[in-house]
UniProtKB/TrEMBL annotation:
It comes from Entamoeba dispar (strain ATCC PRA-260 / SAW760). Pfam families: RabGAP-TBC (PF00566). This is Rab-GAP TBC domain-containing protein. Keywords: Membrane, Transmembrane, Transmembrane helix. GO terms for molecular function: GTPase activator activity.
């Protein structure tokens, strides 16, 4: 295994590889790819490549990607089974393998540009560029490379990069800023001693045992997991009491916790979680807290303040949403009952779809919020407003009268019960162009 890893990271990786059979297959595909790219580019430029040929081209490269993914997961399984390997080596080599399996291909980017890649799997053609952005700490470039979807393989470090400042590449891919990690754990172990508002502390305790995200219920029933979720919430309430913890925050925390856990834990289950080193779980917990602060502070910086007290964010979001709708349609307040609309979208304004969608679907939306790609302004606050308006627009397209509370409520339930990745993509596309 050590010999294999040395080969993987050698400077001349195209002449030496971890698995000769896999490598020969991948390398021959690369050679075919470059030759085929030149040939197909010529065909496109002289307009001889008809729609059937284009279909064959897309089909071919789809198959190549499947082979690459298979090779990557075979390697990654071996990698994660090696207990002697340090975490740093594991992550750095993982990034190198990803860049090799998804090279900087202009043709792949051309293909992916025809369709939105706002899915849980994300835009694979951008993996190489995104890792380069992470190495350079170039957030402006990262924003552009993430507009059409964040690949799931690098979702965790992309989120962490956006939420932090001054981190090295190694810290980003470990989702562990040494400074923030030390700050968090210098206090978190004593969070039971925090003198919190009694009502807030009680609400936190009740909400922790009521958190059952779809697909992860057994994990969040575990007492050790609950202890960590509770600690994150208590830390937040202690440091940000104005306005502090709110019901629904647990759903947001669960999304971050799962995405960061799946980055480290192969086949995330309670058994695999309990087998994972404590230091890694500590890292995941701290990263979850860091991201929670990032997204909430980006919202509350835009919220109304009265006598030093921050307004609860759904109220500020609703006020701005109503203003935006009135600018678009000056008869908005006359046509529709604001109370009915507010009631139907309030959960969206509180926890940004996390209450209504499963974690993987929610993560697609959070890609846009965290990376600032959900709206042209690139702000979390505005992104939530425009996503909520996009939701209203999709409901209106069904022919529902927004003044009819029963019909609106029925159509809302139907939307969330039957939602697919393509619907999420449509939602984000509408939000962007508002």
């Amino acid at each position: 295994m050590n010999e294999m890893m040395n080969k993987l990271t050698s400077d001349d990786c195209c002449n030496d590889c971890y698995n000769k059979n896999n490598y020969n297959s991948i390398h021959s595909n690369h050679i075919y790819f470059h030759s085929f790219f030149n040939f197909s580019y010529f065909f496109i430029s002289v307009s001889f490549l008809n729609s059937f040929s284009l279909f064959k081209v897309f089909q071919y490269f789809s198959n190549v990607n499947q082979k690459k993914q298979k090779n990557f997961f075979i390697f990654y399984k071996e990698l994660t089974n090696n207990k002697s390997m340090s975490i740093k080596e594991d992550l750095e080599k993982r990034m190198k393998v990803l860049q090799r399996n998804y090279p900087n291909s202009y043709f792949q980017k051309l293909i992916s540009s025809f369709t939105r890649q706002t899915t849980f799997e994300g835009n694979k053609s951008k993996i190489y560029d995104i890792i380069e952005d992470l190495k350079k700490g170039d957030k402006k470039r990262l924003y552009l490379d993430c507009i059409n979807g964040v690949p799931k393989e690098v979702r965790a470090p992309v989120w962490y990069c956006m939420a932090t400042e001054g981190c090295s590449y190694k810290e980003i891919i470990k989702i562990k800023s040494n400074k923030l990690y030390q700050e968090y754990w210098s206090e978190a172990g004593e969070c039971e001693l925090f003198n919190l508002n009694k009502k807030q502390a009680r609400t936190i305790d009740v909400d922790v045992v009521r958190l059952f995200p779809e697909g992860y219920k057994e994990i969040f029933k575990n007492e050790e997991v609950r202890k960590r979720i509770r600690r994150i919430k208590r830390m937040y309430e202690y440091h940000f009491p104005n306005p502090g913890y709110f019901q629904g925050m647990g759903d947001i925390v669960a999304v971050f916790f799962v995405i960061f856990s799946e980055y480290y834990i192969n086949e995330f289950s309670i058994n695999n979680y309990l087998k994972t080193d404590k230091e890694i779980i500590d890292r995941i917990e701290c990263a979850t807290y860091v991201l929670l602060i990032y997204i909430m502070q980006n919202i509350y910086c835009e919220c109304k303040t009265t006598n030093g007290i921050k307004e609860f964010h759904p109220e500020s979001l609703w006020r701005e949403l109503s203003k935006f709708c009135t600018l678009k349609d000056k008869y908005f307040n006359i046509k529709y009952d604001e109370f009915i609309i507010k009631q139907q979208i309030y959960k969206i304004l509180v926890c940004f779809f996390a209450r209504d969608l499963n974690i993987h679907l929610t993560s697609i939306i959070y890609d846009g919020l965290i990376c600032g790609t959900c709206c042209s302004e690139g702000k979390v606050f505005n992104g939530i407003i425009k996503l909520a308006i996009a939701f209203i627009e999709i409901i209106k397209q069904t022919g529902v009268n927004l003044d009819d509370l029963y019909s609106f409520n029925q159509e809302s339930h139907k939307f969330f019960e039957t939602i697919t990745e393509s619907k999420i993509s449509e939602l984000i596309a509408i939000a962007w162009y508002l």
